[in-house]
């Protein structure tokens, strides 16, 4: 899925755990603007719209998705970053983020450097070997440039604008 710029923050209005999860999301945009079957990136997790209600979208997630993402920890009131799929003719700026969520990183340290927040993160197993300095990584669906990589950690910076308009 190709996504655009994160422009919206939604909120989990309800969640039912039963052989996976069924999530109801309160969206800041009209549910009429999204079709049943559309893919929406929810904090980086691409989910398919299965129902629409007044200003809410309903998604289903499998056990695999719950185990590989932070979605299993979401609860009513959790705020999430939203991105709808790009349409032909939309601006193609920034990074391309494609693929699926493969792991959940752990934030080890947050420091402030020249007005930005610097995050030091770790990844499970061999996943860190896939992270490249000056490459990009998506955290909660937000594409960020990798500033440094060591044998055990990697670092990214969150500029004030990104901190203000996302859940980061």
- Average per-residue pLDDT, rounded, comes to 86
The count of DSSP E runs of length 2 or more, i.e. the number of strands, is 11
Tell me about the largest β-sheet: 6 strands, antiparallel, barrel
Proportion in β-strands: 35-45%
Computed CA radius of gyration, to the nearest angstrom: 16 Å
| Low-pLDDT residue spans | none
Structural class determined from secondary elements: mainly beta
**Spatial shape:** globular
Number of helices: 2
Report the end-to-end length measured between terminal Cα atoms: 22 Å
Strand order of the largest sheet: 1-2-5-4-3-6
What string, H for helix and E for strand, traces the elements in order?
EEEEEHEEEEEEH
What's the oligomerization state? single chain
**Helix fraction by DSSP (H/I, runs of at least 4):** under 10%
Task: Give a short summary of the structure.
The chain has 168 residues and is mainly beta. It contains two helices and eleven strands; from the N terminus they run βββββαββββββα.
